[in-house]
Amino acid sequence: MLGDATGHGLGPQNMSLLIGMAVALTIVLLRNRQARRLRVEMLWVRPVIFTVLVGASLVAEPPVLTPLALTILAVGLVLGGALGWQRGRLMHIEVDPETHMLRSQASPLGLIFIVVLMVIRFGLRGFLFQYASQWHLPLVAVSDAFLLFILGLFATQGLEMWLRAQRLLTEARAGGPTSV
Prior knowledge:
mainly alpha; 6% strand
């Protein structure tokens, strides 16, 4: 049997999710083949929007704030932040020496990084939800930790890219290196 009523395995719902992810990854791969303009002044937008969405989700269905739940939430945010910083470092950024226009290009390694994270999340989610009651894990906190993980990922990726872009712009204006 491919899937069961619990949603574990490769049932129709999970197959649809995997097909959707494959299509999205194909589009992202095609889009990332060339460098695109990096608008440093807009790097804050995605983290702010996601912060509002995560905040709304936490308010709509708040976890019970036990020490265990707070630890789970903090681990999700910190891991997301650490991995977001790494993902930001994988982005190639260059400055046109004459116009000082910034361009960025995602590396194939960065995409592989995201795919691996999605696969881990997909597998870990099913595993954690299956054993949460045995381990006395608060399900809402585990689910919210995934949201905080993504928030940390977006926020620190943008921060790392912003800091590096600012350094590159300063160096380009002074006649130094123009890409990293």
